[in-house]
Specification:
By secondary structure, this protein is mainly alpha-helical. The protein has 36 helices and ten strands. Among the domains are: 75 residues, 434 Repressor (Amino-terminal Domain) (Orthogonal Bundle), CATH 1.10.260; 146 residues, P-loop containing nucleotide triphosphate hydrolases (Rossmann fold); 73 residues, no CATH class; 84 residues, Orthogonal Bundle (Arc Repressor Mutant, subunit A); 140 residues, Serine Threonine Protein Phosphatase 5, Tetratricopeptide repeat (Alpha Horseshoe), CATH 1.25.40.10. This is AfsR family transcriptional regulator.
Length: 743
């Protein structure tokens, strides 16, 4: 028995209290009091001593004597090694305020079993630093001790559960002779100790639920914080904290805290670039900042230059005995052979995210097996979920996967895999795009692809979800000389592209298809894609002068070929370009000539499109009555001519929209409202936000003019929401002014 323990027992006896009565009076458990009196635990800290003094009713002098005994016992124990001590805290810790607050609130909730928090996420996110930070902040709340144990869950041989229990029990000063023999008994013993003592356990780098479950407290006020690269979804009743990379401003703050060069306000842009190259990953940021801090001659710009080289970025994010690639490799080593193959082959994916279908194409595995493999990568923090059934790499992990691919597969295999993926993406894109094309609108006979869209909605969903991937595949096919495939993809997108007419990527698609068509012998095909490129320059990139020039070049070639249909389309696109450039008279004349040529060529789809160009030109010239008449003529022609479904829907929406605007400009508000409400279902079916925004704007203004002010607000708000692109600024400002008038 220690002198402190003897003195505590004397004071308890003098007060006439049993251990249980002192426990009730002080709030310190009877088990803890017993351990202190018998010398089986360290002398308590100040808060615990104060609680005991209150329970014993000690005078200040007596408390002072007891504190002296406690200090002496602690000093005598100072030379002995202390087990499970917390690692050194990080003085320049940045961010994670929300996560720390969530864990503090969880620790203080005081309901149900002992609180457990699981901090999980990919390598390098600072999970350990966060847990240690929390322990340091809550130090005074846990007088029973702060214990840290690295479970080495990413090692080939993680810490055995029995060994972990032994270390924790010894750290809690349970005598060696009292420690039970079996794991189950030790787990029960640990729970009993933690129930009676208020401790905080940091169980770092857990490898599995089975490893960590026996180490958790069951009752009482102890807190366990578990960190893991895995989600540990089998643990029930825990608070899960999913870490993500730091916010950009936090990344910059961390770099400035580590390196004096980064603190220079003049280097703000370069600091942001370093943070981006580090993917806002705390480990990478800390390494980058340390390299900068230990090289006084370096500037932040010098570091940016080094990190800009993607092939050397991981090598540059290494210092001393730590490195980003090393951290990733620990998780990679735990993968089975199929998951390793999947991981490295996902480096072929050109876009930002992907689905299990693409993983299946890359490996040749069954779709269900590919999905299981993706889940394994997510569980180890090597992939991130990116929405329902979609996944993405962190930028640095993508580079690591690329290194593994180059090191583990020969060039021929890599090339064959990349081409298989590219061909699948482009073939599927053609099938999806043709749902919107005249003469198609269904799956090819006998189609057995992994993706089988059952209609326009599913086709659109796939094309949008995989846009960055099929675009990347299109670039690859262009570089590889697959010219006809490039042209076929662009052709399949012709009418679909109208649905997203303001999207700039169509300029690249039709730029690639024009260049590819120029390499093929069919000049009629080439002029078609020159025309498409003119449309993209005018409508998608907002370059009407370039669009007109391209269209005139297409017209010249079409005349040489005697292709009346493409002459008409060239004039139609030139008319659009001139109108967008502000030359309405010239645009109108071109559309009238295109209308004549479409009629000669028997191109009914083109005819109604040119007639719409005429209506738009007349309206822009302020001849609203003529424009309205022309729009109704378009609607009549749609019924009279065999216009294909998608072009007919496009023409119907556009005709109604032009008519509503002309009616509104004429002050015919009641008619404008009827026309706009009639057009809304067609515009919703077509799916182009610009038409919907224009119609809601007209509806709102018409209701205002007709005195239906309360009904006007929702439509005007919808117009503001839909007309958000820069090119709609005038119409958006009109909607905002109208809302302001409503108060």
């Amino acid at each position: 028995m220690s002198e402190f323990g003897s003195r505590l027992r004397e004071l308890r006896h003098a007060a006439g209290l049993t251990m249980e009565q002192l426990a009730e009076a002080s709030g310190v458990s009877a088990r803890a009091i017993s351990d202190m009196e018998r010398g089986h635990s360290r002398a308590p800290q100040t808060r615990t001593l104060a609680a005991l003094a209150r329970g014993l009713g000690l005078e200040p002098e007596q408390l002072g004597e007891l504190e002296g005994e406690a200090r002496q016992q602690r000093s005598q124990a100072g030379g002995r090694p202390r087990l499970c001590e917390l690692p050194r805290a990080i003085s320049d810790f940045v961010g994670r305020a929300d996560e720390l607050d969530r864990m503090r609130r969880h620790a203080l909730a005081g309901l149900g079993p002992a609180p457990v928090a699981v901090v999980h996420g990919q390598p390098g996110l600072g999970k350990t630093a966060l847990a240690v930070r929390l322990a340091d902040q809550l130090r005074d709340r846990y007088p029973g001790g702060l214990l840290y144990l690295d479970l080495r869950g990413t090692d080939a041989e993680p810490v055995a559960t029995g060994d972990a229990l032994l270390r924790l029990l010894r750290a809690l000063e349970v005598g060696s002779r009292r420690i039970a023999e079996t794991d189950d008994e030790r787990s029960s013993q640990l729970r009993a100790v933690l129930r009676d003592r208020r401790c905080l356990l940091v169980l770092d780098n857990a490898g599995s639920e089975a490893q960590v479950r026996p180490l958790l407290p069951s009752e009482g006020e102890s807190l366990a914080v578990v960190t893991s690269r895995r989600v540990l979804g089998g643990l029930e009743g825990v608070e899960r904290i999913a870490l993500t990379p730091l916010a950009p401003h936090e990344s910059a703050a961390l770099l400035r805290a580590i390196a004096v060069q980064a603190a220079d306000p003049r280097a703000a842009a370069e600091v942001e670039a370093v943070a981006r190259y580090c993917g806002h990953l705390p480990l990478a940021l800390r390494i980058a900042g340390t390299r900068l801090a230990t090289r006084p001659a370096w500037t932040v710009e010098h570091l940016v230059t080094r990190l800009a080289d993607a092939d050397r970025r991981l090598a540059n994010l290494s210092t001393g005995d730590i490195g980003v690639a090393t951290a990733f490799a620990l998780s990679h080593a735990q993968l089975g052979k199929p998951a390793r193959e999947l991981f490295r082959r996902l480096a072929h994916v050109p876009g930002v995210d992907f689905a299990a279908t693409l993983a299946s194409v890359l490996t040749g595995a069954h779709l269900d097996d590919a999905a299981d493999g993706l889940d394994e990568l997510v569980d180890l923090g090597l992939l991130q979920p990116s929405g329902p059934d979609r996944y993405r790499f962190h930028d640095l992990i993508r580079l690591f996967a690329g290194e593994r691919l180059r090191n583990e597969e020969p060039p021929g295999t890599r090339a064959a895999t990349a081409k298989r993926m590219s061909d699948w993406l482009l073939t599927t894109a053609i099938v999806a795009g043709r749902w919107f094309e005249p003469g198609y609108g269904s799956l090819p006979d006998g189609w057995t692809g992994l993706v089988a869209p059952a209609g326009e909605e599913e086709a659109d969903a796939w094309l949008q979800a995989e846009r960055t991937n099929w675009l990347g595949a299109l670039r690859s096919a262009s570089r590889g000389g697959q010219y006809q495939l490039v042209v076929d993809v662009a052709e399949a997108m012709h009418w679909y592209s109208d649905k997203y007419v303001r999207s700039g990527y169509w300029y690249e698609v039709y730029g690639l298809s024009r260049a590819a068509a120029a390499q093929l012998p069919d000049r009629r095909q080439e002029v078609t894609h020159v025309n498409y490129f003119s449309w993209a320059a005018t409508h998608c990139r907002g370059r009407p002068d370039e669009g007109a020039e391209i269209a005139l070049d297409a017209h010249r070639v079409a005349v040489e070929l005697g292709d009346v249909k493409e002459q008409a389309w060239a004039l139609r696109y030139a008319g659009d370009a001139w109108r967008h450039a502000g030359d309405d008279e010239r645009g109108l004349a071109a559309c009238r000539e295109a209308l004549r040529l479409f009629d000669v060529a028997g191109d009914h789809d083109g005819y109604v499109q040119a007639q719409l160009g005429v209506a738009r030109g007349i309206s822009n010239l302020g001849r609203y009555h003529e424009a309205i008449t022309e729009c109704f003529a378009v609607l009549e022609q749609i019924e009279l001519r065999p216009v294909a479904a998608r072009p007919a829907l496009s023409a119907r929406v556009c005709a109604h929209t032009i008519a509503t605007e002309a009616l509104a400009e004429s002050g015919r508000w009641a008619e404008a409202l009827v026309e706009a409400e009639l057009a809304l279902p067609f515009a919703a079916e077509y799916g182009y936000a610009g038409y919907l925004g224009e119609l809601h704007l007209t509806i709102g203004r018409a209701r205002m003019a007709l005195g239906r002010r309360d009904e006007a607000r929702p439509s005007l708000r919808m117009a503001v929401e839909l007309l958000i692109e820069k090119r709609y600024r005038g119409r958006s400002e009109l909607a905002q002014r109208s809302l302001a008038e409503l108060g």
